Amino acid sequence: MLLSFFGRSNSVSDIMENKDPASPGEAPPRCSFLRAVGLITGDMRLFGEWVKRQVLVVQLLDWVLRGVAQVMLLNNPISGLLIVGGLFLQDPWWAVNALIGTFISTVSALLLGQNRGAVSAGLHGYSGTLVGMLMAVVSAKGSWYWWLLLPNVFMSMLCPVVSSALSSLLGKWDLPILTLPFNILLFVHMAATGGNHPYFPQVDFKPNDHLLALNESVQSLDVSQLFLSVPVGVSQVYGCSSPWTGGVFLLALLLCSPKSCFHAVCGSAAGMLSGLALAAPHQDIYSGLWGYNSVLSCIAIGGGVFYVLTWQTHLLAVLCAFVCAYMNAAVCNVLSVLALPAASWAFSLSTLIFLLMSSEIRAICRVPPSAVSRPEEETRRRRKEKSERKNKTAVDLTPSVYV
């Protein structure tokens, strides 16, 4: 699409200047630059077609990078490469575990005969990314504890099994599985090992009763830390806590889908405001723990992923982000009693609730998982269909002339 668009633009400019259309070898530098940008933005469909003709190793590399990016609901290997760079910026050991989890999950999906199109889009890799990453984050053994790769590989192998089972169940209602496989498998691992396990101990998640005794005033708020909590909230999607890492993730979002990037910022800001409204400890707000679930829910609902992007669905996404933050607080309070983390249960539950919602407003149009595409492409397709309907209506209303 981008290539044909820029090609038409070049021809129009030639006609306006009363010149013959330039040959491909004489294309202006600016047009060549725009073509190059078009090749690495969006879902890189042309690159994906090229990858299909390459050896399996090249295909696996593309699938793994797309799987890493699919955590943010992106389908772009360059975005995945940027996210991997951000993970290494945060902690190389975490990045290694995330890549291993993605690779094992993708290969397992191939061996189990899962849909090849879903595998190539990274849809069987992102759960392994989160499982591998978060198992390293919650491990009490610290960095470079190589024995941790054993449960990492085992749980990542189970990702396509759980994903396929949930898809069969939720597919009856045209619902996506979101991060449910990751939540289930992380809980299985943590509940099976616990904090006192001799080989795979986990960090201690204590009940949040002690937080009620905190009496932090509004005057003690650090405004600069509040602003930084927005990119930090984006980085917490992968369990990171650095604003620099969050900035890299936002760049990856912008490269694939500017609309998703905008809604990620809106979701993180909504989570931060919800934390302030519920008098959460300031340190939890600064560390982005109130933002990451809202980031994902805002992208899913308002970013044009599972709903067609309109101003109505944008407001719906902001509402979902606030609901998600409140649900995250409830999930944290409940699961902390069991010494378990909140993970991304709040995102999965709140997003599924909003996707099950029915409405008579035509602008609130849900996109089934099988038809999900890049938000910009979905908007373009809807506008084209609307224009064709108008043209067809105009033709039908034109009076016939009989000779």
From TrEMBL:
Major location category of this protein: membrane
Cellular compartments annotated: Cell membrane
Annotated region described as Disordered, given as residue ranges: 375-403
GO molecular function list: urea transmembrane transporter activity
Keywords from the UniProt entry: Cell membrane, Membrane, Transmembrane, Transmembrane helix, Transport
Signal peptide: none
Amino acid composition bias (Basic and acidic residues), ranges on this chain: 375-393
Reaction(s) the record says it catalyses: urea(in) = urea(out)
Membrane-spanning intervals of the chain: 93-112, 119-138, 144-166, 173-192, 236-255, 262-283, 289-309, 316-339, 345-365
Membrane topology according to the record: Multi-pass membrane protein
GO cellular component entries: plasma membrane
Family the entry assigns: Belongs to the urea transporter family.
Record's protein name: Urea transporter
Phylogenetic classification of the source organism: Eukaryota, Metazoa, Chordata, Craniata, Vertebrata
